[in-house]
Amino acid sequence: MMARSNSSNVWLQEHVNDHYVQMAKKDGYRARAAYKLIEIDEKDKLLKPGIWVADLGAAPGSWCQVAAKKVGPHGRVFALDILEMDPIRGVEFVQGDFREDEVLAEFSALLNGRQLDLVICDIAPNITGNADTDQARSMYLCELALEFAREQLKPGGHLLVKVFQGYGFTEYMSAMRETFASVVTRKPKASRDRSPEVYLLGKQKKS
């Protein structure tokens, strides 16, 4: 077995001691990312009883856990990821690659013609270590999420998407502004300070 590098040892130490990791264990969430959605939702009131939500890039499922609890028994949560995800009560899951048309078609078929109230997307590409490649891959996934939202969100619906600041960010923000009445930036406390990630919230999809 290879010895861990100093940087991965530091990350592991940080992760184990991380306040949000500890809270996730205590509260029964599958990942610390749950608190990012919880904080944004407290501010923006996105998750309401009875609404229909799609979670793109859902595994391991902490955002689904938050969403399913909030929308309640009369709401629906649909989840998609290339990775496996253990079942969550009240969540319908499709495993497949978001970039493939047939996977998106299978996922869309679950909606049975009804439009969504909210699309949430915490998706990130597999990291290559090449900053330019990783940024391009990330922006491509964000563009697919926006395209999906344009097709599947009802007028007045919302999109919350994780974006890494860098090449293509400004253009993506402009594209979101064409689709939504307003676009705001959120950086929840559970986002690590050094991470270039921010969340863009498109409110009130234009009809």
UniProtKB/TrEMBL annotation:
It is an enzyme of class 2 (transferase). GO terms for cellular component: cytoplasm. It holds the Pfam family FtsJ. Its EC number is 2.1.1.166. SUPFAM superfamilies: S-adenosyl-L-methionine-dependent methyltransferases (SSF53335). It catalyses: uridine(2552) in 23S rRNA + S-adenosyl-L-methionine = 2'-O-methyluridine(2552) in 23S rRNA + S-adenosyl-L-homocysteine + H(+). GO terms for molecular function: rRNA (uridine-2'-O-)-methyltransferase activity. Keywords: Cytoplasm, Methyltransferase, rRNA processing, S-adenosyl-L-methionine, Transferase. The active site is at 162 (proton acceptor). Specifically methylates the uridine in position 2552 of 23S rRNA at the 2'-O position of the ribose in the fully assembled 50S ribosomal subunit. This is Ribosomal RNA large subunit methyltransferase E. It comes from Deefgea piscis.
